[in-house]
Amino acid sequence: MTPESKQLAANRQAFQRRLGEWFARSQRKLPWRTERSVYRTVVSELMLQQTQVATVLPYFERWMSRLPDFEALAAASEETVLKLWEGLGYYRRARFLHRLAREIIRLPALPRTAAEWRALPGIGDYTAAAIASIACGEAVACVDGNVVRILARLTADDTPFATSAAAVKRFTPLAEALLDECAPGRHNEAMMELGATLCTKRRPACTVCPVASLCAGRASPEIEAIPRIGRAKTEQREVRRAWVRRDGELLLHRIPKGSVRMAGLHELPTLEHLGRDAGTPAPDSLLTTRRRTITRYQITEKIHRLPPPKGPLAADLVWVAVDAIGQITLSGPHRRWVRELLAAGH
DNA sequence: AAAACGGGGTA
DNA sequence: TACCCAGTTTT
Predict the structure, then answer these.
(1) Do A204 and A302 sit in the same domain of this protein?
(2) Closest CA to B2 C1' — which residue?
């Protein structure tokens, strides 16, 4: 613990009071706050991993109206779950949540502690602490990127971290020292709300921050550079895909169940799926080139028009009626591209 | 086009 | 610790 963190920990009661009063008057009204249940907390936390609040809102409401509790989710089909998740991205989360519900309903009672939640699929240290504190009242601190940023700035700590995991590890003791054990859920939500709305990565609103007077880094010109967390270098990748039409139908690839990535979703098939890896297609078959970014990869997808394959279809390739494409699940980018290409008359 | 948002699992 | 998962929105 640095001198700044000892100083801050010594002022923990003032910190908790100012944070709590600010949160009471400034918190956003969010559907998982205005109506609370363990299930709503779990679903919101899984959706909020890697995804911003504004994006989650419509998905959360639709999910709740269709799958209102753990029992309904456990009884739902994989297709239903993926369809409700379509467009949110990082589809593994949907499968984790589905598995989690099926494990939960077999338990004699809901998990209560972070350690119990941590054992379930898709639940790491942060999510376990968030659920246990917010939904179960356990006095555990949760440390996400927001909390790291707040604590690094409060202590003016410009230590460089190789990874975000290293930063989380560094600031966990301070987060625990500051935790309001009388209201751990409210305290954790307030910390994350502060990070999401005032102590933002760029242009933090120090002038209206409730804990600015306790902040060693407040309004310093370098505060935007804290915390210092290394970023992985981006890597270029290229994928060639096939646009194959037959009257009223489009050829898609259904990603097998056992796949780590996007299991159960559909994509445009790659040329390899069609056995076209030998030799490049004629240049004039190139329909369009699209780019997408995912974590550290910048992926270029080249889409070529190809004639329908002769003979039996390879496993996992399916003809889908153009009118029925809305009923199957594609990743966000592929759904957009397919719509655009169909609308353009291809 | 770049930057902001930023957690879990696995080897 | 490094790397994968297979992204949307804002600037």
Answers:
(1) no
(2) A293
